[in-house]
Amino acid sequence: MTTFEDILEEAGKFGRCQMRIVSIFCLVSVPFSFVYVGIVFQGFTPEHWCRDPGVIEIRERCGWSLQDAHRATVSLMNSSTGVTYSQCQKLDMDWNATGLTCDNPESELTQAQLSTLPMTGCTDGWEYDYEGRQSFVTEFDLVCADAWYVDMFQAALSVGFLVGSITIGYLADKYGRMKSFLMTNFFIGVTGILVATSPNYIALLVFRVLFGFGVKGGWMVGYVLITELVGVEYRRMVGVTYQLFFSLGILILPLLAYFIPNWRWLQVVFTIPYFCFLTYYWFIPESPRWLLSQNKRNEAMEITKAIAKENKKTLSKIIETLTDENTDSISTASFMDLFKTSKLRKFTFILSFNWFTSAVVYQGLIMRLGILGGNVYVDFLISGIVELPAAFLILLTIERIGRRLPFAAANIVAGAACLITAFIPDSMFWLKSAVACVGRLGITMAFEMVVFVNTELYPTIIRNLGVSVCSTLCDIGGIVAPFLLYRLAVIWLELPLIIFGALAFVAGGLVLLLPETKGVPLPETIDDIEYKCNRFTLKEPVSLVLQLCQTLLLKGPVLQSLASRHLPGYF
């Protein structure tokens, strides 16, 4: 019986064909990053204050700038970020009766005088210090009492992620990777245009959910497909490279947002690539692993031969015995399979929690850039540059150390950085920024690693479903993150960092309970999970390790007896 891993030895584990497919699929990560964190620009909340017709009349008559009128007619108030100009209330007075002149607006009324005057709500809407630009916040006036609607915009995307990743993951395991990918991208293109043309905010949220339904699932299908096409020693490189393009998208996003000042046109730019991905129908084959898991041996053989031909390799007759290890019946993925054994239950819980933590901390740190003040485009670009070393650190460490320890360390470093940043005073700006960048680097590493560790731990028959179900906790984290950040920041700007740090510490500790997957062939069946992961769990007592070391010096049946008792399936 010959497995697909055996055939890859002859066809090429990472030849020209796989390089072409991986290169093409990496482009899927770029617009995914736009969608994932585009709220920083699409939903940017600029400096704002109550619109007052009386002030507008004086400003136009005197030729004042928006800032001059703002300083002269808006009172100061205390907030979580310090003393700021009032954003949700205006002075209840007749400005024509104040005797305010045009000569020197800043000297007419002092802040002490303004603070004693009665206040009222923003009955005439708001003015924004965002000239020449428009976010959906400024278009729909989502500030003050309606500010939580901005949280809903990101939460709606994550709701779509949540439902879509499970649904599309199931469809990909049942009907094929490429069929699901192509149908998903057409759906994304249509709903993305609907988001850009939404007539009101309710319609925007509905279309945003549908948009998110396709985006996450399509990205995960692409990840699983390219992982299944390469040999075991190339999985790490392929997975990290796939996510490296996500970080490249993060670098491109602020440039797009700077030159495209309207959030609707920015949404169109986010959507166009998904129509382009429909051309993959002519360039990308179905996953032979999936075809074998569905007992479609002939199709798997044809695709495998095509891969070998493009790689300029010659297959021996061994391909005639190509089969799946579980050929008794055509298997279909089931949600309950993820909890079928004790090891699968442990994997599912730990990976789900890490997906949740990565989403909350990663999104939280990025969205936090939009509420800190300063130049959001420059700050976002710098924070994006910080992500790039993450991919290279992963490649450097997982080849020499493995997956588990770097994965755990990345979470713990991110947690420590978040906690330290929260207590560094604002006066130490550069130190605070540097520590925050370390946290961003750590959580980026953790986020990138959870994807391919998740892929490596599940067998082929439930791999796509396993990744999709575990990543639903990422989507739940995406729902929680904006509320956690924006609402807690109103109480204390650094409070969300305390929560982020605690979550990351717990996630790092749980990772240490996972098995190591470095150099281990992708499991094909659930039985593989029970046997092939045994040698890497933390449950083996120290006495067993010592026993094995001593036995390595012996010969004959002693080694065989001990190994077969403790490591079934390997000796």
How are strands sequenced across the largest beta sheet?
1-6
Number of helical runs?
Answer: 26
CATH structural class of the domain at 338-536: Mainly Alpha
Query: Radius of gyration, Cα only, in angstroms?
Result: 28 Å
Percent of sequence in beta strands: under 5%
Keywords:
two-stranded antiparallel ribbon; Growth Hormone, Chain: A; mainly alpha
Describe the structure.
One of its GO terms (biological process) is serotonin transport. It is a multi-pass membrane protein. Helix 11 runs antiparallel to helix 12, helix 17 runs antiparallel to helix 23 and helix 20 packs antiparallel against helix 21. This protein has a domain of 199 residues: Up-down Bundle (Growth Hormone, Chain: A). The longest helix has 29 residues. It is built from 26 helices and six strands.
